[in-house]
C-alpha cells in the first residue's frame, strides 16, 4: 500500500512542479531572460514526464471510468472546495483570490457538465459530438463547436479563445 500512496504523492508533487515551472518560465521570458525561461520550460516538461509515468504505473482506467471520476472531481470542486475558498478570501478582503476562485469554480461547473455529456456519448459507444473545442485563456472555461462572443464567466472576447487540437 505504501508504494501506491507514494506514487499518488509523487504524481501530485510532479504535477504541481510542472505548472509552477511553466509559470516561472513565462515570468522569466517577460523579464527578458529567454535562456532561463527555456530552462524552466524544460524542467516543466520533465516534471510532466515524471507525473505521467507515475500515473501510468498507478493505472489509467477506461475513458468511461475516467469521465465518471472527472465529473465527481469537478463537482466536488464547484460545490464544496471553491465555495469555501471564496468565503474565506472574501472574509480576508482578498479580491484577486476571490476572482481567481470564482472563475475556477464556474469553469469547473462547465467542465463537469461537458464530462457528463461526453460520458453519455461514450456509454453509447460514440465519441462526443463536437467539431471543435475552445478554451478561454483567462478563466479556463471550455466551449464546444464555437467560442462564444465573450466568455460568460470572465468576459474575455471569444476571439482570444484558443482551439484545442490533439
UniProtKB/TrEMBL annotation:
Answer yes or no on keyword Glycosyltransferase. Answer: no
UniProt domain Ferritin-like diiron: residue ranges: 1-126
What UniProt keywords apply to this chain's record, in alphabetical order? Electron transport, Transport
Signal sequence range: none
> What GO molecular-function term can you cite, just one?
metal ion binding
Protein name stated in the entry: Rubrerythrin
**To which species is this protein native?**
Methanospirillum lacunae
Amino acid at each position: 500500500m505504501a508504494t501506491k500512496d507514494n506514487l499518488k504523492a509523487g504524481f501530485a508533487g510532479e504535477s504541481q512542479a510542472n505548472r509552477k515551472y511553466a509559470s516561472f518560465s513565462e515570468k522569466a521570458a517577460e523579464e527578458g531572460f529567454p535562456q532561463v525561461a527555456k530552462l524552466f520550460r524544460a524542467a516543466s516538461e520533465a516534471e510532466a514526464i515524471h507525473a505521467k509515468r507515475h500515473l501510468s504505473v498507478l493505472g489509467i482506467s477506461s475513458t468511461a471510468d475516467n469521465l465518471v471520476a472527472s465529473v465527481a472531481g469537478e463537482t466536488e470542486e464547484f460545490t464544496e472546495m471553491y465555495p469555501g475558498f471564496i468565503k474565506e478570501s472574501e472574509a480576508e478582503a482578498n479580491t484577486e483570490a476571490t476572482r481567481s476562485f470564482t472563475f475556477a469554480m464556474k469553469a469547473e461547473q462547465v467542465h463537469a457538465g461537458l464530462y457528463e455529456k461526453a460520458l453519455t456519448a461514450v456509454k453509447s459507444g460514440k465519441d462526443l459530438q463536437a467539431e471543435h473545442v475552445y478554451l478561454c485563456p483567462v478563466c479556463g472555461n471550455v466551449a464546444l463547436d464555437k467560442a462564444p462572443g465573450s466568455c460568460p464567466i470572465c468576459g474575455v472576447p471569444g476571439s482570444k479563445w484558443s482551439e484545442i487540437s490533439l
